[in-house]
Specification:
heterodimer; A: about 230 residues; elongated; B: about 180 residues; mainly alpha
């Protein structure tokens, strides 16, 4: 039977289990959630704004949705991509602390200079090496590894979010807005066709000046999420 | 084809030299960031770096005329300031609030009233491992961030939007004053 209390407890347990030891993932996922919620709010603001005419809404709603898609996709792919690099470097022990090196040396997982690689053996720093799968991971390595991995993931996640939110997204958005302005301008210059099968009334199309005012005045056209 | 590409990537990765961090100061700092930094820090860093990078990007956007660019820069700066202030404050506030309501049994005084006990544990997860303090701290960060995002849908309209508008007008006035000098 449906029980809100059970659901709430399940939600709390889910958050604890999934993010209790993964602060880097939490930052990426809540960042994406932030973009989704603010994008929804932006679309909502256009849909329910009585000051915007139906014709303008036909134009602005898809634009807002496309804008949201650019924001969300670029944030997720870049941030999780850069965080993955941090995660991979630490998990494979390509990037490690001196304490971890000592423990790995003890287990014979490090290929020393001049030593010949044993065929089919996976060494620390190899793509397929996974420090968390070692026999002595929980007993010896975890305490030293986890804080370093978490820190590396948070730092790389932050770098990814800065690149995506402050560099890639604004440039992509500016380019996209310029294309949209050009399209609006070329639409304006087209002669109106009364028999057009499309129901949009081209005589009442917004002027370029009005479009620019709208684009500049809607608060959502900025570049940061909530 | 994809398998071949992956093998190339794997081989290249395997050939890269390993990197070792030996300085205790650096190791401690990395661990500290992983343990203590969360969404308010992320939001603050995004805000500060945005303030450095985005106005410049808007100013260099030659696909619009100079007047539009000036307004765009003013709006961008205003939005970054408004968004960062509310974003950081709400995230930090919610995380603190969640921490107050997700105490472990050991954190509550023995003589606390039943209602107080219940209130202080209403957000404590059922699968909590009381010995793992870090996991609880990260849970509080995650829960606080998620709930603050819900609240920010409203503050986005109630605080960010009017504050952005106010600041934009102020910045435009400053720009105009500078031009008239």
């Amino acid at each position: 039977m449906f029980s809100p209390s059970k659901m709430w407890n399940g939600f709390k347990s889910y958050i604890y289990k999934n993010y209790g030891e993964n602060p880097g993932s939490m930052l990426v996922h809540t960042g994406v959630l932030g973009w989704i919620l603010s994008s929804m709010a932006q679309v909502y603001a256009v849909v329910f704004n009585n000051k915007i005419s139906k014709e303008q809404k036909v134009f602005l709603i898809p634009q807002e949705i496309a804008d949201a898609a650019v924001n969300i996709l670029s944030f997720y792919t870049l941030t999780s991509g850069v965080k993955y690099i941090g995660s991979k470097l630490t998990k494979t022990a390509k990037l490690r602390t001196s304490d971890i090196t000592d423990l790995l040396k003890k287990g014979g997982h490090i290929l020393e200079k001049g030593q010949k690689r044993v065929e089919n053996k996976v060494y620390a720093g190899d793509w397929n090496f996974d420090i968390t799968k070692l026999d002595n991971y929980n007993s010896e390595i975890a305490d030293k590894f986890k804080p370093f991995r978490n820190g590396a993931e948070v730092i790389t996640g932050l770098i990814g979010s800065v690149i995506s939110s402050n560099l890639v997204t604004p440039i992509a958005r500016n380019k996209y807005a310029a294309i949209k302005q050009k399209q609006a301008l070329s639409n304006m210059n087209k002669p109106s066709e009364k028999d057009n099968v499309n129901n949009v009334n081209y005589d009442s199309r917004m002027s370029m000046e009005r479009y620019q005012n709208l684009a500049a005045s809607k608060y959502s056209s900025g570049s940061l999420k909530i | 084809m994809t398998a071949v590409n992956l093998n190339i990537v794997k081989n290249m990765y395997n050939r890269l030299p390993s990197m070792q961090v030996s300085k205790d100061k650096v190791i401690d700092k990395v661990a500290y960031i992983g343990k203590k930094w969360s969404s308010p820090h992320q939001r603050a860093i995004l805000g500060v770096t945005a303030l450095v990078m985005q106005p410049y990007i808007d100013w260099k956007n030659k696909s619009v005329d100079e007047k539009t660019r000036k307004v765009a820069v003013a709006r961008t700066v205003a939005k970054i300031i408004a968004g960062t202030l509310t974003g950081v404050a709400l995230r930090a506030g919610f995380i603190k609030g969640i921490a107050a309501m997700s105490k472990t049994a050991a954190e509550i005084p023995a003589n606390a009233k039943p209602f107080t006990k219940k209130l202080k544990q209403c957000l404590t997860p059922k699968n909590l491992d009381p010995s793992n303090k870090d996991a609880l701290a990260q849970y509080r960060n995650a829960m606080g961030t998620i709930l603050s995002l819900g609240a920010m849908i409203f503050t986005n309209f109630l605080i960010d939007a009017p504050l952005t508008k106010f600041l934009t007008n102020q910045f435009i006035k400053i720009q105009e004053k500078g031009e008239n000098k």
